[in-house]
Amino acid sequence: MTWREKDRWQRLFSTGAALSILLFSTGCERRQSALHPASVNAERIADLFWWMVGGGLIIWAVVMAIAFFATRAHPEAHGVRSARWLILGGGVAFPVVVLTGLLIYGLMLMPQLSSTADIDLEIDVAGEQWWWRVTYQTAAGEPVELANEIRLPVGQRALFRLTSPDVIHSFWIPPLGGKVDMIPGRTNTLVLEPTQTGTFRGACAEYCGSSHALMKFEVMVMEPDAFADWLNRQAQPAQPPQSESARQGQTAFLANGCGACHTVRGTEANGTLGPDLTHVGSRLSLGAGILPVDPEAFTRWIGHTGAIKPDVKMPSFGMLPEDQLPAMAQYLSELQ
Amino acid sequence: MNEQTDYRDPEEEALALAQAERLAKAWKTPKGWRYWSAVNNTEVGLWYTGVSFIFFLFAGVLALLIRAQLAVPENDLLSAETYNQVFTLHGSVMMFLFGVPMFEAFSILILPQMLGARDLPFPRLSAYGFWCFLIGGVFVSGSIFFGAAPQGGWFMYPPLSTSYSEGLGPDIWLLGLSFIEVSSLAAAVELIVGVLKTRPPGMRINLMPLYSWYILVVAGMILFAFPPLIAGDLLFEMERAFDWPFFDVSRGGDPLLWQHLFWIFGHPEVYIIFLPAVALVATIVPTAARRPIVGYSWIVLAAVGTGFISFGLWVHHMFTTGMPAVSLAFFSAASEAVAIPTGVQIFCFLATALAGRFVKSVPMLFVSGALAIFVLGGLTGVMVAIAPFDFQAHDTYFIVAHLHYVLIGGMLFPVIAGIYYFFPLITSKKLSDKLGKIGFWLMFIGFNVAFLPMHFTGLLGMPRRVYTYSADSGFGLLNMVSSIGAFVLAAGVAVLVWDVLRPKGKQPTCERNPWGAGTLEWLVEMPGRAWGVRSIPIIRSRYPLWDQPNLMRDVDAGRFYLPDAQEGKRETLISTIIDADPIQCLRVPGPTFKALWAAIFTGGLFIFATYKLYWLAIASGTLALITILIWLWRDTAIIPAKQTKDIGLGVTLPIYASGAKSVGWWAMFITMIGNMSAFNSLVFGYFFFWTVHDDFPPDNTPDLGFWPVAALVAILLSWALTLWARRLNNLDHASGYYAALGLGALLTVAGAYALWAGPHFAGMDPTSNVYPATVWVLVLWCLIHLGIGLIMQLYCLARRAAGRMTATHDIDIRNVALYWHFMAITLATTVAVIAGFPEVA
Amino acid sequence: MMDETQTRPEHAPEVPPGSRESLWLLVSGPTIWAAHFLLSYLAVSVWCAKVAGRAGPLGDIRIAIGVLTALALTGIALTGWGGWRRHRFGEATLPHDFDTPGDRHRFLGFSTFLLCGLSFVATVFVALSVVFIRSCE
Q1: Fewest Cβ atoms nearer than 10 Å: which of A315, B43, B469, C114?
Q2: What span, in angstroms and rounded, lies between the C-alpha atoms of B833 and B824?
Q3: Domain edges within chain B
Q4: Confidence grade of residue C6 (pLDDT, cut at 50, 70, 90)
């Protein structure tokens, strides 16, 4: 039999080392990574994770070493008495002690994570198939609605009220904290307190139908002043189109009935089925985190919606006269 | 009979040969097309094992499709729709058509051998369960070839799978798998009674093979775990087919109720899959260590303890649903606690290996691999049981990695170890050591390459159940590595399949007890005989083949119990639960097609219902009922020509037993325990809605009037009359018996009417709101059971009239009376809930 | 086959007190755990849903669960002690694998004792929840 304990050890460690290098050398992965925490709670959880990984690996190695000793290194019979002590010590005493400690640590952490005290900011997020309706509650009173994008001031505690009008989704920004489900008929809460500025990415974590994979969003953590400016701008109605092409685009947008589902504040488009587009040109992504925001992407999206995002509710407008799509794309990109 | 059997004298030899001939004739496996009418555990168990392994290969191919799709970012090999069907079926088939059935199949195959029994007590029930499993499994799996497979995930969360799914996918899942759950329950009843009542004389509870301890625990778990899912399926299908709004928020429903019911089933199910695999390890390790297990009682502790605690874990699949932290904490605590018995088992195995002289073998190679994989999966399990960490890990590839470490290490590797270990027992040929080692290393390396990186993929932010991911996400390389590993793993499985299927005609029949094991199943002759054991031995040790001198010789020579079949009937011994004193010589039925027909008609009921062909479904269900009634009428509770039988060694046992002494009574009792746990789940649903709503029942709910109380009175009277009829039958007071039972049947009808009349005349519309729907579903449950109770009462009337039941031979009325105890509890609870609770709420 | 052949005790197998034995004693420890677990969970669910509200304190329910825990632990300890006494019956030592009523009696006792140990720890684990968490949030 070729039971090579050493080989396996080496393989494990080399794999682990390769993975670690992979993890920490490349930067682009951090945006959606729970291992690169950027909030108070995510840091606590990541610390907990690394401690558990360390402890777990040691336990695994010891168990393997015992197995190796008993079956390979010294397969001859040893005393039953020592075997019984092995059960008592390794199977009973050690696990009880370790598990008790770990459980107490976890229990002490839970109230900290679930506390909704001392809130600086409140945001309502509804998960819908397959995008995010985001509503900021402002001090001025009038809520500000946008979609598929969340911006947060660094160092402040933001309370999310999470709902869903259709199926169950789950709201998750890995670098900022754990996920919370969005369940029809319920309002769940989540508090995030970012500690670093930067751009992150969130995703739906609960399987929610055909395009579950394409339900993402961008998150930007900003300095509080910059955040206040941004929110102010978002509260304004849309800018009138500047270029000739954009004006044509606006006409086409309204003529083709886009306003039945989409709102562009300041125009007659006031539909609420789909995302609010008042400032869509200023956003960090299009189609719930799947396309960049530029005229080409808009053209592609409007023309091939269903091909890009299977079963999406918005129909594809590929049948429009070919000058209308670029015009609409221009109009939408100018909605800064 | 083997040549080496030595007899004391020619006279004994002549007798033994004549006995063996009669025994062989009684247990002969049918030939030709009639082969499929076989019901003996060796045939049914083999088919069952083979079919569930084929489902494993099918689900494995689906897994390869998943890995092919995810190998590179933005892949368009599979469409979103196809991918979602593929992963849904992969999970469903692995869990429902491989994980659980594989253990049932294995146990049906080897448990009687381990207990030195000739067969399980209800061979036809096993056959019925197998055919149900085959029909339902093919139906569910086949749907993907028509693009009609479910795509809601194996957990089928509403409202995605209720209001937001078109097509028949969810119905195929619900009805197809409910049908299979019936066969799991049938197997559970069979195995519990098998372990408790068919042990050989002398095999006291402290001498049972560890395997049977695990099977007892697991079958018991099935009784409490599967019924909540059946109840959930009922609610779900009522919503899909008839618009009863159990999970529809706009009419007061709540999708979380499904999650509770699903995971009350779903978490214990993981242990239902895992524990039998540990049972195999507990069988193989002592053989490899050449000594009895160290810590037998500790393993019993672990099996029973895990069985209990695994029911306190279900909410850890719901840690992110926004429940109060303190509720999560309870489940987090139980999830940590369950690690203790799991660790105990592992250390018992290590201790046994340490204390014994360890001998290497291919089965042990797979066990060692299982240990390395499972321990890691167990440790990540302890991690995700800590709720804060689960908030991050939940629904990511970290969990995919964790669950595959647990299930492949905790189930697949031990099962393959079991296949290598038990293959000679079934086919008298050993599998190849060389291929075994090649297969092992391919699987072991492939598995770790595939799944170890997934821990990182998940924590880097990749959610589960995504059909694609973008190139800039950074998941590409890790996924490519995983996909390569998956194909290496599949190559290892292919080697195993080849080893099993390759022609072995030239290979010599292997020697008896090839591994030098100590447990009874290795009494098997090479090549095997249909009778199982030549004579049923007296057991004095946990490892009788090691400790009892000449055991094999004496068994072969027919020197123990039941060496003969004078009447040409199939017989096995029934013994007491604790001390295994023989108390009955049970006649078990032989080959029949009735079980197959009953399964086909039962399948028709579920399959036609899936396509909303309700008249055909009802017709098929009626045929199933008639087939089962004919089966019961002709083949059960047969009054024997002579009352007792000499089973050898001067022991004479009754052939007929009723009440708590009979296996049928135990089967009814166990079935009804499972039935009650489904009913309790419905009651749980009622009170769940009460906690969710401020007004439950809603203010405008109409009063049910006196009807529910009238129903209760009628049914309690019917119950009392049934019990009285049992007594009158014992007194041989025929006219009194007919009068009491007849009146009881009439009261059953009256009670059923009254129960229906309450909500009906109050004008409660089940589609209007979840309250009337909940009341109606409880009423519906009772009506179905009252219907069954009525058929039982009429059946008992007919049995006595036909002379198939007498004052002393009263199995039927005793079992029916037992059913009615549970009926009375069900009805009293229902009336208290639907009529009583609104008064106090 | 075996390296340490065990011999039966010389004296006749002693008959344990109470000839009727069942598996119910074996499962009573875990059953108490299950009852404690379920009652605690239900109590807290109803409390948070109907009494305190989702942001409210656990308050008195913590004391109630404390009392329940004390009762459960007492029950488990008593059952476990009963098991231990059965295990110590007569003169034999582990592993209780002789084909005698005495060893069967001792085996059931020892297993009962072990299960009570596990149930005790598991009950304490569950009770720890209300030690560290004080609100319904």
Answers
A1: A315
A2: 14
A3: 35-501, 659-840
A4: very low
Q: What DSSP letter does each residue of B217-281 carry, written as one string?
A: HHHHHHHHHHHHHHHHHHHHHHHHHH---SS-GGGT--HHHHHHHHHHHHHHHHHHHHHHHHHHH
Q: For residues C24 and B669, what is the distance between their CA atoms, to the nearest angstrom?
A: 15
At A241-254, the pLDDT tens digits run: 989 999 999 999 99
Q: Dihedral of CA A303/A307/A308/A314: which sign?
A: positive
Q: What is the pLDDT of residue A248?
A: 93
Instruction: Name the token pair of B269.
Output: 């199910």
For the domain made up of B659-840, give the CATH fold: Four Helix Bundle (Hemerythrin (Met), subunit A) (1.20.120)
Give yes or no for C30 touching B (CB within 8 A). Answer: yes
CATH class of A1-76+115-221: mainly beta
Tokens found for residue A110: 């839970």
Q: Both tokens of residue B410?
A: 């905790």
Are C121 and A80 an interchain contact pair (Cβ–Cβ within 8 Å)?
A: no
Whether A168 sits inside 8 A of B441 (CB atoms) is no
Got the DSSP string for B1-60?
Answer: --TT---SSHHHHHHHHHHHHHHHHHTPPP-GGGGGG--SHHHHHHHHHHHHHHHHHHHH
Confidence category of residue A4, pLDDT binned at 50, 70, 90: very low
CATH 1.10.10.350 fits B35-501, yes or no: no
| B453–A contact, CB cutoff 8 A | yes
Chains contacting chain A through 3 or more C-beta pairs under 8 A: B, C
Global pTM reads 0.94
List pLDDT tens digits, range B361-376: 999 999 999 999 999 9
Could you say which architecture CATH assigns to the domain A244-333?
Sandwich (2.60)
For the segment B815-827, what is each residue's pLDDT rounded down to a tens digit?
A: 999 999 999 999 9
How far CA C83 is from CA of B580, C26, C34, in Å, comes to 22, 9, 19
Which 1-30 residues of chain A touch chain B by CB within 8 A?
A: 1-3, 8, 11-12, 15, 19, 22-23, 26, 28-29
